[in-house]
Amino acid sequence: MSPPSALDVVAATDTQAATFIDRLSLNGVAARRSKAPAVSTGLATYASSDMFKSPGHGKTKAKRWDHILTQESNSREFSSLKAASQLLKTPGLISLGGGLPSSTVFPFENLQVKVPKPPHFSEPETKDSGLLVQAGKHDAAEGKSLYDIHIAFNYGQATGSAQLLRFVTEHTEIVHHPPYQDWQCTLNVGSTAAFEMALRTFCTRGDYMMTEEYSFCTALETASPLGVRCLGIKMDEEGLLPSHMDDLLTNWSVSDRGAKKPFLLYTVPTGQNPTGATQSAQRRRELYAVAQKHDLYILEDEPYYFLQMQPYTGPDAPDVPPPSSHDAFLEALVPSLLSMDTDGRVMHMDSFSKVIAPGMRTGWITASAQIVERIVRHAEVSTQMPSGVSQLVLFKLLDETWGHAG
Q1: With 0-12 CB in 10 A as exposed, 13-18 as middle and 19+ as buried, what is 50?
Q2: ∠ CA(59), CA(61), CA(62), 5° rounding?
Q3: 80 CB contacts (<8 Å, ≥6 apart)?
Q4: pLDDT of 49 higher than 50
Q5: Beta carbons within 8 Å of 285's beta carbon, 6+ residues apart
Q6: Is 101's pLDDT higher than 80?
Q7: Sign (positive/negative) of CA torsion 97, 102, 107, 112?
């Protein structure tokens, strides 16, 4: 299913009167930004999704997950270097720490890429009529952009740059609208890294993790050396069977299995790898109900979420017409587990690999503030941050050129 070609975004004409609304829409982004804190254009500046999302009035906070956090995760503390960066904006402060090099020595003056102009996305169309997008070294200081080589090519925060974090936070709220209050996003170097961090956050050697009986080979190969045993849940044409998972957990025997009852589920609900199965909305609701019954935590891996296809009508029937608007496109998507998550028991993993390019090595997770904070502490001393080059290219493409409607 392709998004509509027409860009049906209506400009906000009275942004001064705008207030935070319960659910962000495509047409509400400009008004939201006018009321949100300004994006900092300093080096390695602190940023949080809380700066860019609705406050969630009337929503409850997420359940706490202290009882399943590992000793390794609980022992992680703030990176002293990353924490100290919050002081860099202090007027008159001369920092002797952090090792932030001067961008005058970066051997890059500008970055230029040619990108498709919606709705003309094909390679020949881009070659003929694409847009040339450029990033200079000091665009932010010169008032040309919020993001430039000076910022992006230096050290940054494990959450990713404020500029791109704002975009993915808004995107998450528009598409999924998490139904609890304290959800957050953080950028990463791809879903495989996010998955490995999640396993080390929740699992100790010998624990079981449930997944589809046919599962993504890299996920299984990530779990194996960590000593995490994988337990296959039966599937049908719609993917994982919640009834089988419920029966397995209800009758779990610690003595027979030699391990405590599983509390972690890894699933690919849309275009499941390797079977291609997609869970229906009802199947996802049933899965979530079983997770509530047995107090499970869910790792929802959704790299293919936006690659959902039009319903198949048969060899001789006419094709179903594409959605007529962006709202219709979003409504036609099968709702994510994140969108049903009233408890904060889902870590939703998104990636640019399948919708932009895998070599970007950039993705993001959405989870409760407690879990995001633990993942960020891990990233601070491992992956550190997504590539600044990738973040800059993605920002110029998604935020400045296409916008949310592109």
Answers
A1: middle
A2: 125
A3: none
A4: yes
A5: 340
A6: yes
A7: positive
Lowest mean pLDDT among 94-98, 253-257, 351-355: 94-98
Distance CA 280, CA 278 (A): 6
CA distance 365 to 367: 7
pLDDT at 15: 31
As a three-state string, the secondary structure of the chain is CCCCCCCCCCCCCCHHHCCCCCCCCHHHHHHHHHHCCCCCCCCCCCCCHHHCCCCCCCCCCCCCCHHHCCHHHHCCCCCHHHHHHHHCCCCCCCCCCCCCCCHHHCCCCEEEEEECECCECCHHHHHHHCEEEEEECCCCCCCCCCCCHHHHCCCCCCCCCHHHHHHHHHHHHHHCCCCCCCEEEEEECCHHHHHHHHHHHHCCCCCEEEEECCCCHHHHHHHHHHCCEEEEECEECCEECHHHHHHHHHCCCHHHHCCCCCCEEEECCCCCCCCCCCCCHHHHHHHHHHHHHCCCEEEEECCCHHHCCCCCCCCCCCCCCCCCCHHHHHHHCCCCHHHHCCCCCEEEEEECCCCCCHHHCCEEEEEEHHHHHHHHHHHHCCCCCCCHHHHHHHHHHHHHHHCCCC
Strand partners, 134: 112
| Tokens found for residue 46 | 């602190």
Name the one residue in this structure whose structure tokens are 């609304």. Answer: 21
pTM of the model: 0.91
For residue 38, report the phi and psi dihedrals to the nearest 5 degrees: -65, 145
Residues in the chain: 406
Distance separating alpha carbons of residues 288 and 286, to the nearest angstrom: 5
pLDDT at 22 over 80: no
The radius of gyration of the chain's CA atoms, rounded to the nearest angstrom, is 22
Nearest Cα to 312, choosing from 322, 302, 320?
A: 320
Could you report the per-residue pLDDT of 278-337, keeping only the tens digit for each? Answer: 999 999 999 999 999 999 999 999 999 998 888 878 888 888 888 888 899 999 999 999
Work out the mean pLDDT of the chain and round it to a whole number: 91
Give the mean pLDDT of 347-361.
Answer: 96
CA distance 269 to 256: 30
Taking 80 as the threshold, does the pLDDT of residue 88 lie above it?
no
Per-residue tokens: 325: 């608007």
